């Protein structure tokens, strides 16, 4: 009796396995395909943190070689650059009615230096669609340098290319105000050190 | 400037040497044809640093040490990063 039941159980298992095998095989193949597709779609799949870090180091050196020592120190210490606005200013004696803050991979913020009032955000990017190393995004310091060169070289053209928004669209206005306060303190400290 | 790499030297030469100047002109055209912007970092008489965007090789000052190419500007991302 036991032998018969055991044999029947084995036969049942084998039958069930034979019935389920094609379905399981198809599911396995499908799972593999999905896994591969997920890997391809994941933008971080080819991401190499070492390469990105080396790229950023090169970009920082390039930025340093292009901007003034004061501006480089500002970027190194505070993480952004200030560029004085030039449109509508016929001479430096007139004073500068507005300026920009350049952040890496964030909009350029226009503001009034005399009052700290925020004017606009200019959303602009420099994508390299050829993705030479798998990404279209410049290193942080290259993005800052590209904005700096475009602003100082042809402010009107850059502003024309950018998407203009009211302050607060992408960057928290409180953060910008804090950064402006940090910038004032930083410049004051540098002035004091120089005077001493 | 290249994503994932940073600065890459595309061509080097002396504009006073005709063959080298020709190589520089070809490299310049290649980059502009690829849709890049070209800028020459300069120093104003008062010491102020700025850049000059150039659209042809003739616009590059003869004494310029380098021309930097970077992807052209496009209206930026609409995603929030706050």
Describe the structure.
The complex is a heterodimer of chains A (196) and B (82). By secondary structure, chain A is α+β, with helices and mostly antiparallel strands. Chain A has 5 helices and 5 strands, in the order αααββββαβα. Chain A has helices spanning 2-41, 49-66, 69-78, 140-161, 173-195; strands at 81-84, 99-102, 108-111, 118-125, 163-165. Chain A starts with a helix and ends with a helix. The model of chain B has no long low-confidence stretch (mean pLDDT 88). Chain B has 82 residues and is an alpha+beta fold. A 3-stranded antiparallel beta sheet of chain B has the order 2-1-3, covered by helices on one side. Chains A and B meet through α2, β4 and α4 of A and β1, β2, β3 and β4 of B.
Nearest-integer average pLDDT of chain A = 87
How many DSSP E strands of chain B?
Answer: 4
Count of DSSP helices of chain B? 1
The ordered H/E elements of chain A are: HHHEEEEHEH
Label the overall shape of chain B. Answer: globular
Largest sheet of chain A: 5 strands, antiparallel
Q: In which range does the helix fraction of chain A lie?
A: 55-70%
Distance between the termini of chain A: 105 Å
Number of domains of chain A: 2
Calculate the mean pLDDT score of chain B and round it: 88
Task: Please report the two chains with the greatest interface, counting residues with C-beta closer than 8 angstroms to the partner's C-beta.
Answer: A-B, 54 and 32 residues
Could you tell me the number of beta strands of chain A? 5
Strands ordered across the widest β-sheet of chain A: 1-2-3-4-5
Q: Can you give the helix content of chain B as a percent range?
A: 10-25%
Give a brief description.
The complex is a heterodimer of chains A (196) and B (82). Chain A is of the alpha+beta class and 196 residues long.
Task: Annotate the secondary structure layout.
The complex is a heterodimer of chains A (196) and B (82).
Chain A: H1 2-41, H2 49-66, H3 69-78, E1 81-84, E2 99-102, E3 108-111, E4 118-125, H4 140-161, E5 163-165, H5 173-195
Antiparallel strand pairs in A: 1-2, 2-3, 3-4, 4-5
Helix pairs in contact in A: 2-4
Chain B: H1 18-33, E1 36-43, E2 49-54, E3 68-71, E4 74-75
